[in-house]
Amino acid sequence: MEKNLDIYGIRTVIEAIRSGEKTIDKIFIQIGLTGRLINELEALIRKNKLKSSYVPTQKLNRLSKKNHQGVIARISPIKFYEINQIIEKIEDKKDALILILDQINDVRNFGAIIRTAEVSGVDAIIIQNQSSAPINADTVKTSAGGVFNVPICKVSHIKDAIYHLKSSKIMVIAASEKAEKNIYDLSLKKSLAIIMGSEQRGISPSVLKLSDEMVKLPMFGKIESLNVSVASGIFLYEVIRQRI
Q: Which of 22, 48, 75 is the last residue of a domain?
């Protein structure tokens, strides 16, 4: 598998966005580029809420040896789901299990979480367009191919996804060291969504406020936190333990 699948050239990237056939993970644009086509591309990026970054020529040259014309788009190997598709997928389940990842941007952690989610029967993973790790060859490898088996939904705002889930009677649980209640004190047999935050920032305060419950893992050592992929595994397998 290639390290990444890239397409390059201003017109090529514009047509890829318009066609909707490619799932674009991120677009790199050379700093200082001007002209009608660049303006058109930037308008499409805003309209489709795509992730983009302005970078120096040297960065683009490292990404591709081709004639990139100052624009390179990184393509995701999977097709992302819409939140409505996820809701439709789980609406008849009494024990749906959703994983929400807030600001987890480390590719290896992301891949490891996907792998655990796949083997523990997670129905879908929800991530945000911005501040989330890309799905590339490293993600695929770390997930052991699990990325192809678990529906992944990309949303503009995690908060909006939570509103959708709660309107479908799905309980939303936030994993936070600030919680007073342990995960083992909570019944996890109903349909639920578990929010995991990054190791650096945790769950965003605005997202945390929307949760129905805040729970933590008991810790007895000097280190105050676990790797997020390990913590995710513990949470998911407590769900399995209770349900079987």
A: 75
Nearest 10 degrees: Cα torsion 202, 208, 213, 214: 30
What would the two tokens of residue 137 be?
């060859």
3-class SS of residue 54: strand
Cross-strand pairs, 26: 74
208 with 126, same domain? yes
Looking up residue 225, the CATH number of its domain turns out to be: 3.40.1280.10
**Domain count along the chain:** 2
What's the token pair of residue 76? 């995701």
Which tokens go with 241? 């333990």
CATH number at residue 26: 3.30.1330.30
User: Is 126 in contact with 99 (CB distance < 8 Å)?
Assistant: yes
Percentage of the chain exceeding pLDDT 90: 65
Q: What is the pLDDT of residues 180-195, one digit of tens each?
A: 899 999 999 999 999 9
Dist. CA 95–CA 167, nearest whole Å: 16
**How far is Cα 128 from Cα 141, in angstroms, rounded to an integer?**
21
Query: Of 21, 54, 75, which residue sits at a domain end?
Result: 75
Distance CA 179, CA 147 (A): 30
